Each structure stands twice: as C-alpha cells, then as structure tokens.
Amino acid sequence: MPGRIAVSNRAAAVWQTATLTEIRRETPHAATFRFAVPAWAGHLPGQHLMLRLTAEDGYTAQRHYSIASPPEDSGHIELTLDHVEGGEVSGWFHTEAKPGDEVEVRGPLSGFFAWPGDRPALLIGAGSGVVPLMSMVRHHRARGLSVPLRLLVSARGPEELIYAREFGTETTPVFTRSAPHGVPVGRMGAAHVAPLLAEQPEGGWEAYVCGSNAFAEHASRLLVEAGQPVDRIRIERFG
User: Fold this and answer.
1) How many CA atoms does the CB half-sphere of 104 hold within 13 Å?
2) Is the pTM of this model over 0.85?
3) What are phi and psi of 126, to 5 degrees?
4) Side-chain half-sphere CA neighbours of 207 within 13 A
C-alpha cells in the first residue's frame, strides 16, 4: 500500500530516549517540540505515543500525545502541545524545557486512527485535535500522493490556528469567535461538510475526526447527516 509503514509491537513496547532539539511557537498557547530519536522505528500518520517524564527525585509522569510529524521525518518526532492550566507535563514543556533535555518515549500506539495513505481522507479537527491530522497532511505532501485529501479545521480565531503557516489549498479553516475581514464567524456546520460529501472521490471518503468530546460528537453528526457511512468515520477524542 502507498505510504504503509509496519512497526512491530515489540519495538513499540520499548522505551527510548528522546532528545529535545527545537521548540517552535505555533500559537500563544501551543508549541511544537522536536525530538531526535535515532532508533525510532517509524509510525503511521494518526498514531500516538506514550511520553515519560522523570523528575530529579524519581517521580514520573506519563502522557499520551499524538505525533505531529510524518513518518518520512526519519530519526525525529514532533509533538505539538497545548499549555494546559495546571498540567504538570505540558507546564514543564512550556515553562522549563530547553534543547538538550531528554525524555522517554514509547510507541507508536494504536492503529485505529492511522491513515496509511491508501484511500481518500476527509479530516476534521478542532483546536489541538488538528495535530494527528497534520501528520497525515505532511505525509500526503512528502509522498506526493495523488489520493484526495481535505482538511476542515476549527479554531477560535486566526491567532489560535495551529500550523496556520503550513496550510494549503487542501485546508478550509472555520473560525468560531473572530475571523479575518470578510470571513464569516460561526461554528462548523452543514455548509462546510455537505459540499465535500456531495462530490465524493472514487471509493468515497474515509473520515477522521479529532477534537474534544463535544466537537467529535458534533462533527460526526454532521458527517452522518451529509451521507457519510458510520463505519467509515474514525474518531479520536480528548477531554
């Protein structure tokens, strides 16, 4: 299959040292953290990993994070994290982490939400829910895939749109609180989803929805009402 990468369960179970090499600010509340992981066995776009942070006193904290980078970024992985108020791990990353710091990672995990690049993909995300979807977009570009891919992404306003500098013609942003002059403000609705379902590619869409519980339910309902088969909607939710 085009873009398919196989990773053994045994490799995914091993903790590896990841060295932070770069921090990029995406929005006032989100940043991308790039790590060198020389023995990383690869992943499929849409998968996530387990990250383990160990304090000097031995206390450890573990979190699941979606992988933002495409599998083509060999030996490196990128995570884009919101600064969650009171979050001990995200708080450390946003206030203390610096290049050269080391953490442990294990993965990739979960194949349900993965997109191997072999079928048309309709991606719908909100806020940091765009992170695993961006791995798919980057994979699509890196491989020069001809299979159709579209992204609908919701954000409060342009300043909160993660990866805004990277989006191209495949992406339609929806702004819920503020928008550039001439762009309507409002919740994602049927007017955004229905046109994509009205003219489907050969074989139809495989839909991937990622966001909060409330957003995932709303976006899934829009898809079903527009004619998307329920068994071809994959959902990753948080919160």
Assistant:
1) 13
2) yes
3) -140, 140
4) 25
